[in-house]
Specification:
The chain is mainly α. Helix content is 77%, strand content 0%. The chain is rod-shaped, with a radius of gyration of 33 Å.
Length: 186
C-alpha cells in the first residue's frame, strides 16, 4: 500500500527537481553566454560542437555566419569569399558575398591586362554587370594578337567577335587594306 506524502516532503521534492533541472540547463546557458562574450568563430564553433541541437544552436549558427561574414568584409580576398561560400552557400549573406566575389574577379581581370584575364572573367560571369565592359576592354588585347598578320580570316573573325569600338574600326581599316593588297572583295 502506498503511503501518502506529506505536503512538506512534496515541496522539498519539487524544489529539488526544479534545482536539478535548472542545474542541467545552466551548463548550456553558460556556454552560450560565454560564446556570445567571445564573439569569435572559434567560440561559436565550440558551442555548436557541444550543443548542436540545443535551444541556442540556431542562434549560434547565425552568429557564426555573421562573424565569418564580417571577416570576409575585412579581408576582402577571393580566398576568404570562397571559404565563406563553401561554409554558407545558402546563408543570410551568401548573395552579398557572391557579388563581392564577382567584383574581386573583375578587379583581378583588370589588373591582368590581358585577353586571357578578361576571357577568364567572362567564362565565370558571362551575363553580369561587368560582362559588356569586359568585352569592350578585351578587344584591344585580341586585336594586338593579330596585328601584323596578313590573314584576312583572322580580321574577319575578330570583327565578328568585336563588331564595335575603336579596336573594330582599326581592324576594319586593316582588313580593307589587306583585301586591296590581295585584290579580294569583301
Amino acid at each position: 500500500m502506498l503511503k501518502a506524502v506529506n505536503p512538506k516532503s512534496r515541496l522539498w521534492i519539487g524544489l529539488t527537481l526544479l534545482a536539478f533541472m535548472a542545474a542541467c540547463g545552466d551548463a548550456e546557458q553558460d556556454a552560450w553566454q560565454s560564446a556570445k562574450m567571445k564573439r569569435s568563430a572559434e567560440g561559436f564553433e565550440e558551442f555548436l560542437q557541444q550543443y548542436p541541437q540545443g535551444p541556442f544552436a540556431q542562434q549560434a549558427r547565425e552568429a557564426l555566419e555573421e562573424v565569418r561574414f564580417k571577416q570576409v568584409q575585412k579581408d576582402n580576398t577571393l580566398k576568404a569569399v570562397e571559404e565563406f561560400l563553401e561554409l554558407h552557400p545558402d546563408g543570410l549573406h551568401a548573395e552579398e558575398v557572391r557579388r563581392t566575389q564577382e567584383l574581386l574577379h573583375w578587379v583581378e581581370a583588370q589588373r591582368g591586362k590581358s585577353l586571357a584575364a578578361f576571357e577568364s572573367f567572362l567564362k565565370l560571369y558571362p551575363e553580369t554587370r561587368f560582362a559588356d565592359e569586359a568585352r569592350i576592354k578585351m578587344a584591344p588585347f585580341a586585336l594586338a594578337e593579330i596585328v601584323g598578320s596578313s590573314d584576312i580570316k583572322e580580321y574577319e573573325d575578330f570583327l565578328q567577335r568585336f563588331p564595335e569600338g575603336p579596336a573594330a574600326d582599326s581592324a576594319r581599316k586593316t582588313l580593307e587594306s589587306l583585301r586591296a593588297d590581295q585584290g579580294t572583295a569583301p
